[in-house]
Write a structure and sequence with these properties.
Shape: elongated
Number of domains: 2
Structural class: alpha+beta
Radius of gyration: 21 Å
Distance between the termini: 25 Å
Largest sheet: 4 strands, antiparallel
Number of strands: 11
Strand order of the largest sheet: 1-7-3-4
Strand content: 25-35%
Length: about 200
Amino acid sequence: MNNTTNIIRYIRGLIKDTLNTNGRKVYVYGTDNNFLLPEPFVSSSSIQVYQNGTLLNTQDWSYSSTTNKVTINFISTGYSLTNGDIIEIKFSYYASYSDTELINYIESTLLYFTQKRYKKLFYMDSNDIIVTYNGENPTKSEEYIIALISAINIDPQNVAIKSKACSMSAVESKSKSEQIDAVFSNWLKSTGIIEFVEDEYYDF
């Protein structure tokens, strides 16, 4: 699991956009082999497609995150779709944000570290992995603070966390930039250590 995947997971916990695993849609096939999913932010790896109760091989269908459609094109089995077939698609999804949107927020957060002249110059490579120009890639603590600042950027009035090292929460009277400055300063004073260790240390 790369560091961006970790950070996205932390952000989703902070903004309460956790994975819903109960996605399900049933269709009756007519002539169109494209099936639009009802939820916009689907986890593609979670999709399962059934034809008349039989689970299809993943080679027999494809999913486009651009159109949010599953397309059935039998390749491995040589089966075909028949008028009246019952197509059931099960999937997991997020309610509010796609991974791509969260990656964009993370990239914006990396610019904040540059503005603050942080000792490491972070950037996102072509594989959407966070690295640095000097080879000192993000520590776990830096992943946490990147996630926290990103979460405040997304929802500045709804972020709070308690950890063994520090306690940070959104303050309604402060602007987004003031909150970010406060948590960043807090983090530096705690020698850059934040530990998201157990569920009881979260205060959402």
